[in-house]
């Protein structure tokens, strides 16, 4: 069975992500320091809240450099995905820098509420095993006020007053802006794909 490390970065969704993994038959280890990453074959970084506080917690846990140097597949969920990028406008904070791009505040407009909350459709941008088995017009559940730009690493985007990255992959680094643990079959499939897919 795959050894999965689930990082406790202070996000309120830790328990629900763990439960979603249990439904897939995976008993993830909760990790709060660098030593906990040893032996992990997959690492999951969930997060709910603000980027500055999450980065401060990762620094206090001694996890920033180990995550930057990680040589096994990593997926960030919601705020966890945003932390994979270079910088966030939220608190003007430096993030992990594993993916190029700056996370920016979403702009409210007529009919466009921020934060972005609820179900929205995924727009595939390129092939990736992360999307294997998903139906056309698959939807996922989002709750966020900041978003990463669409880049060459974007696997799927979402439109809420403009396109933003919903699913991302660059080598071993993956991310989902939505909440897989709250996205029914779509979320379960993305998590299963991450756990089972082959990486370069």
Automatic annotation (TrEMBL):
Heterodimer of HisH and HisF. Its main location: cytoplasm. Residues 6-195 form the Glutamine amidotransferase domain. Pathway: Amino-acid biosynthesis; L-histidine biosynthesis; L-histidine from 5-phospho-alpha-D-ribose 1-diphosphate: step 5/9. Pfam families: GATase. Transmembrane segments: none annotated. PANTHER family: IMIDAZOLE GLYCEROL PHOSPHATE SYNTHASE SUBUNIT HISH. GO terms for molecular function: glutaminase activity; imidazoleglycerol-phosphate synthase activity; lyase activity. GO terms for cellular component: cytoplasm. Gene3D superfamilies: 3.40.50.880. Keywords: Amino-acid biosynthesis, Cytoplasm, Glutamine amidotransferase, Glycosyltransferase, Histidine biosynthesis, Hydrolase, Lyase, Transferase. GO terms for biological process: L-histidine biosynthetic process. This is Imidazole glycerol phosphate synthase subunit HisH. It comes from Xanthomonas campestris pv. phaseoli. Its EC number is 4.3.2.10, 3.5.1.2. The active site is at residues 78, 179, 181. SUPFAM superfamilies: Class I glutamine amidotransferase-like. InterPro entries: Class_I_gatase-like, GATASE, Imidazole-glycPsynth_HisH. It catalyses: L-glutamine + H2O = L-glutamate + NH4(+); 5-[(5-phospho-1-deoxy-D-ribulos-1-ylimino)methylamino]-1-(5-phospho-beta-D-ribosyl)imidazole-4-carboxamide + L-glutamine = D-erythro-1-(imidazol-4-yl)glycerol 3-phosphate + 5-amino-1-(5-phospho-beta-D-ribosyl)imidazole-4-carboxamide + L-glutamate + H(+).
């Amino acid at each position: 069975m795959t050894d999965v490390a689930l990082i406790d970065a202070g996000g309120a969704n830790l328990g629900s992500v763990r439960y979603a993994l249990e439904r897939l038959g995976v008993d993830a280890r909760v990790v709060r320091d660098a030593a906990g990453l040893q032996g992990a074959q997959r690492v999951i970084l969930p997060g709910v809240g603000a980027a500055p506080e999450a980065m401060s917690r990762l620094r206090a846990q001694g996890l920033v450099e180990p995550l930057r140097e990680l040589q096994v597949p990593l997926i960030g969920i919601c705020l966890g995905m945003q932390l994979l990028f270079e910088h966030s406008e939220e608190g003007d904070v430096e993030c992990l820098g594993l993916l190029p791009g700056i996370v920016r505040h979403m702009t409210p407009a007529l009919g466009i509420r921020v934060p972005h909350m609820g179900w929205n459709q995924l727009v595939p941008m390129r092939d990736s095993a992360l999307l294997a088995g998903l139906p056309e017009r698959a939807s996922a559940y989002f709750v966020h006020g900041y978003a990463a730009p669409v880049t060459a690493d974007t696997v799927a985007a979402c439109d809420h007053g403009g396109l933003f990255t919903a699913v991302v992959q660059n080598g071993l680094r993956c991310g989902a802006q939505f909440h897989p643990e709250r996205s029914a079959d779509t979320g379960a499939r993305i998590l299963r794909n991450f756990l089972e897919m082959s990486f370069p």
